[in-house]
Design a protein that fits this description.
This protein has 424 residues and is mainly alpha-helical. The protein has helices at residues 19-50, 53-80, 83-104, 107-112, 115-147, 153-182, 184-202, 218-231, 233-248, 255-262, 266-288, 297-317, 321-349, 355-367, 369-384, 386-407, 416-423.
Length: 424
């Protein structure tokens, strides 16, 4: 029994002691591995075909538009559905889109189909994956809360984020290396294999009954989720801060330009550049299983966002491949702190019956901010050139953090519990 005056030594492996949570992590890892492989080779392949940085931004936009548009409905469906069955449908859709991209990017297809058709088809498949993601995020967020006790939410959030980041390290590096040495067809074959493994992992999860039985109209049900977020000062502030900072700091979308034209390290170097940020993130997240950033979450979140913006500027100005890897590593480290803070806030402050809808609102704020930020970076690179666009994005991220600090000074010294008490 917990006592307020007793500080127990935390078990960093507490959530991993639940077999179903381990299956959940396996599903997340293998799917993220495939997703990140696909993201890095789609960007590089489209840039290889078009030589246009705006084309990279359009990749993000094609995924963000459906993900945002369907997010609230996806959250509603996730709340009222059995999660395992919903995830099986989502993964089957992603598998089909990836299979089509495998077919249209083969050398034989290039001989018969012009680039003017191949690129739009790839955009269309990315659009389809964006639709699937609109259901994936709220379904997985809701499911995790059903397989571990509430007291382990901070620990499970850390392991969940660490698993995602570990896959984000291996995925881009593997994708870049396989693409560089064996071509895009072999890369897509590996992607499909990992999506299939993620599908198998779902079968080791137990069917969980819906946490919400709708008794009102769908419009009122969706409005409840939005209203809950907007009346919670800390949750809304964290989402808004991340939305604008990542929107302006989404320079990772321009990595193919740096790899190909500025640093001249090719697809292999691109894989390592993508992996560098994730390496910083996963190492920091593993450290946070023992050293939590939740003692003063708002202060730590603003520090992390400021460091994220500073790292973006340094990466944009760097002309040395190894220095670029260092700055990308630091970017991932700072970003991981904000990820842990935000995910813990969401898990602790969200009622069980509203998890899907609240996660959907979060996806609209945060989940698609990377893709919209990718479009912003591609557009500014088209208008301002690549390096000025990256420096501009990092500077705006720091400015957003500064404005947020001036408007939320009262939250700086508060603990998560104190801020939570102010909302109730």
């Amino acid at each position: 029994m917990d006592s307020p005056g007793i500080i127990e030594k935390p078990d960093p492996y507490a959530a991993l002691r639940y077999p179903e949570f381990r299956s959940y992590l396996g599903m997340r890892f293998f799917f993220t591995f495939a997703y990140q492989m696909q993201a890095v080779i789609i960007g590089f392949h489209i840039y290889h075909l078009t030589k246009d940085p705006l084309a990279l931004g359009l990749v993000g936009l094609c995924e963000a538009i459906p993900a945002i548009s369907i997010a609230l409905y996806g959250g509603y469906v996730a709340d009222k559905s059995e999660k395992r069955g919903l995830l099986l449908k989502v993964f089957a859709g992603v598998f089909l889109c990836s299979l089509i991209m495998l077919v249209i990017t083969t050398n034989r297809m290039h001989a018969y189909v012009p680039v003017s058709y191949i690129v739009p088809i790839m955009y269309l498949m990315v659009f389809g994956i964006g639709i699937a993601r609109g259901f994936f995020s709220p379904a997985t967020f809701s499911l995790m809360a059903q397989i571990v006790p509430k007291k382990l939410y901070p620990n499970s959030s850390t392991w969940n984020s660490s698993s995602w980041q570990a896959a984000s390290i291996l995925g881009p590096a593997t994708g870049g290396l396989i693409y560089g040495f064996y071509g895009i067809t072999a890369t897509y074959s590996v992607i499909l294999a990992f999506i299939a493994i993620a599908l198998v992992c779902i079968f080791f999860l137990k069917p969980h009954p819906p946490t919400y039985i709708p008794k009102e109209s769908i419009v009122k049900s969706l409005t409840e989720g939005v209203h809950f977020v907007f009346k919670n000062k800390m949750m809304l502030g964290a989402m808004s801060l991340d939305l604008f900072s990542v929107f302006f700091g989404g320079a990772v979308a321009l990595l193919p330009v740096f790899a190909n034209d500025i640093l001249k390290v090719g697809s292999e170097g691109l894989g390592f550049m993508r992996a560098a940020a994730s390496s910083g993130a996963v190492i920091t997240m593993l450290a946070m299983t023992r050293f939590s950033p939740m003692n003063k979450p708002w202060r730590n979140l603003l520090i992390a966002v400021t460091g994220f913006g500073t790292s973006i500027i340094c990466y944009g100005l760097s002309k040395n491949f190894y220095l670029t890897l260092l700055f990308l590593f630091m970017e991932g480290a700072f970003d991981s702190i904000s990820v842990i803070i935000r995910s813990t806030i969401m898990q602790l402050l969200t009622p069980d019956e509203m998890r899907g809808r609240v996660s959907a609102v979060n996806s609209m704020f945060i989940g698609s901010s990377n893709e919209i930020g990718a479009f912003e970076s591609g557009l500014t690179a088209k208008l301002m050139r690549t390096v000025p666009a990256v420096v501009f994005g990092g500077s705006m991220t720091i400015l957003v953090a500064g404005i947020t600090y001036l408007k939320t000074k009262s939250l700086m010294k508060l603990t998560l519990q104190e801020i939570n008490d102010q909302q109730t």
